[in-house]
Amino acid sequence: MKHPENNVILQIVKTIPNSPGVYKMLGQDRGCLYIGKAKNLKKRINSYTKIKNLNPRIKKMVSMVFSIDITITKTEVEAILLESNLIKKNKPRFNILLRDDKSFPYIVLRKNHKWPQISKHRGKRHSNEEYYGPFASAVAVNKAVSVLQKAFPLRSCTDQILNNRNRPCLEYQIKRCTAPCVNKIAKNKYDQIVKDARNFLKGRTKYIQEKLSEKMIKASSDEDFEAAASYRDRLQALTFIQTNQNINLNSNTEADVIGLYTEGNDACINLTIFRSGQNYGSKNYFFSNIKNMNNELIVEAFILQFYQDNNPPKLIIINTDLNQKELIEKTLSKIKLKTVKIEQPIRGYKKQIILDSFNNSKNALIRKKNEKISNLNLLRKLQEILKIKKQINRIEVFDNSHISGSNQVGAMIVFGKNGFEKNQYRKFNINSKISPGDDYGMMQEVITRRIERLIKDKASKPNLIIIDGGKGQLNVLKNILLKYNINDINYISISKGKDRKPGEEKILNLNGEYIYIDNKSSVFFFIQRLRDESHRFAINFHRSKRIKNLISNPLDQIPGIGVKRKKALLYHFGSAEEAKRAGLVDLERVDGISKVMANTIYNFFHNEK
After folding, report:
1. CATH superfamily of 6-90
2. What is the Rg, in whole angstroms, of the alpha carbon atoms belonging to the chain?
């Protein structure tokens, strides 16, 4: 017996050509249900009319289809690229979605700079920089940069700091930098260190180690023991990098290892990155609601979505058969403009590597499921203690941070059944009109902006809001919810105890009454953990903003002020603030500052034209 909803597809399929392309299954409200590609659109869409051959998940999707949009492409490769773009843009309900699409960090070396630096980079690439990676996490790249600085003591500071130093910083004292800012190293020697670092990052590790060893022996025989010790320390750092790789591929091999593990309705993919034969770390990706999906579909969806934003390596190692392997290889090769191969090894060291990746994904999924059970228990207990009728699925926690009213910021963290939802965290720059240190004003702005965003986006509201503060902050929250006629969000506050000691915090309900929760119970520790996470996130945001403001220099904004004049002004006055206070006569006394330039500087600071 045919479902009546199939009539829509039966009618549409008559008008569809036998061409490659992409199709969008649309619901009653034109919402996107599913996006797919096909070598032959007519045959592919016609397959949805054969209800008996469809799995329950696809049957449900077909029953909701009200219309279908198609886009014809010249080739199947074009179709697969378009499908990936559309899935990312529309996030269809019935497609497998890669939810964590944050770009990977790289190590970067500047090309056309007098004093190139080693630093980490995430985001858009620039042609005047060399990139090495990707690394699986910020932790991995930070560790690599730290160790590389010991082996190759290049600067890590910004150009602004480099151009404003008049003496070496601590990095020079601990031998992690050669202080090019104050010419403590000759340009040709610095260039040699840059060249060695570049060769090492490209995989020429043995050559670099042999070279440093020869230099160490020569320095020792010349009784230049300080230089010999420096080469020894750099060799030890390189040895540390080499010995801290668990399993390495052959030298110069560039590969990503994708190990899939499924269990019931959930799946995990472990991605391990190898570049220049070295392990650059791994990352786990979790998928739910994958019942009745085969492993091939999951891996294919992951590969196509992941490499839409990330540069594919020459080799991708998997543990699943792919029927469309050649098509996917062609698609990835078109992205990279080089040949990309996908391999499912059956023996040798590559088989061991994919087996390790599979075991990592298995262990990660088991841990994730156990964490979910623990989280659900905590949410249930919290619901009982707070006497909330509906199940708690989403908690939003708010905190503010500032130092004596400067660099005021707010932050929001989110907790759900899967734990901390970091991709949903939000930062708030506080309006400058709010009085410095006005905690109530800051909380009012942050909560108001959040509520207005929820209303505008028609987004799912949290079941519970937690704020860090006492009755005053709680009243601010209460009044905002009343203003917007919101009565289905529960809220509490956590205030510091008399001596601000952990364990002495007080929990206040929506009426400003204290709720007794045993300070040794799991629920109390859970609330503390939520508060601490919001505090950490707010402080980190405040710190980054404060550092940014500290290193920014108003002298850089003055037309005609370059590196030399800025140095002269800073040397003469000691700071940009003192230069701002200076009169015209004082400015004219600075070396390299003419009367015209003195007027320009004075007018800039005093808003005179």
Report:
1. GIY-YIG endonuclease (3.40.1440.10)
2. 30
The distance from CA 472 to its chain's CA centroid, rounded to whole angstroms, is 35
DSSP letters along 511-548, please? TS-EE---TTSHHHHHHHHHHHHHHHHHHHHHHHHHHH
> For residue 462, what are its two tokens?
């949290």
CATH 3.40.30.10 fits 255-365, yes or no: no
Does the fold of domain 394-534 match that of domain 255-365? yes
The secondary structure of 559-591 as a DSSP string is TT--HHHHHHHHHHHSSHHHHHH--HHHHHTST
**What would the pLDDT profile of 250-265 be if each residue is shown by its tens digit?**
556 789 999 999 998 8
35 Cβ contact partners less than 8 Å away, ≥ 6 residues apart: 22, 23, 24, 25, 83, 86, 87, 90, 92, 95
Location of structure tokens 């085969």: 294
Count of beta carbons in the 10 Å neighbourhood of residue 53: 10
Q: Is 257 in contact with 237 (CB distance < 8 Å)?
A: no
Is the CB of residue 566 less than 8 Å from the CB of residue 556? yes
585 Cβ contact list (under 8 Å, min separation 6):
none
| Residue 299 burial (C-beta neighbours within 10 Å; 0-12, 13-18, 19+) | buried
Q: How far apart are CA 283 and CA 414, in angstroms?
A: 21
Helix (H) or strand (E) holding 35: strand 32-38
**Which residue in the block uniquely carries the two structure tokens 């859970």?**
526
Give the model confidence (pLDDT) of 502-512 as tens digits. 667 888 887 77
Residue type, 194: V
Rounded to an integer, what distance in angstroms lies between the CA atom of residue 96 and that of residue 93? 8
Give the CA count within 13 Å in the CB-facing half-sphere of 33: 19
Give the chain's residues under pLDDT 50: 1-5, 244-248, 608-609
Upper half-sphere CA count for residue 167 (Cβ side, 13 Å): 3
What's the CATH class of domain 394-534? alpha beta
Q: How far apart are CA 356 and CA 277, in angstroms?
A: 16
Tokens encoding 299: 């891996």
Q: What is the pLDDT of residue 1?
A: 36
CA distance 462 to 457: 14
Q: Quick check: helix, strand or coil at residue 252?
A: coil
Q: Around Cβ 130, how many Cβ atoms within 10 Å?
A: 15
Buried b / exposed e over 22-32, threshold 16 CB at 10 Å, is bbbbbbeeeeb
Pick the CATH number of 554-606 from 3.40.190.10, 3.30.450.40, 1.10.287.1490, 1.10.150.20: 1.10.150.20
Token duo for residue 231: 């080469």
E strand residue ranges, 421-489: 426-429, 464-468
Nearest to 33 by CA among 2, 62, 3: 62
Report strand pairing: 315-318 vs 394-403. Answer: unpaired
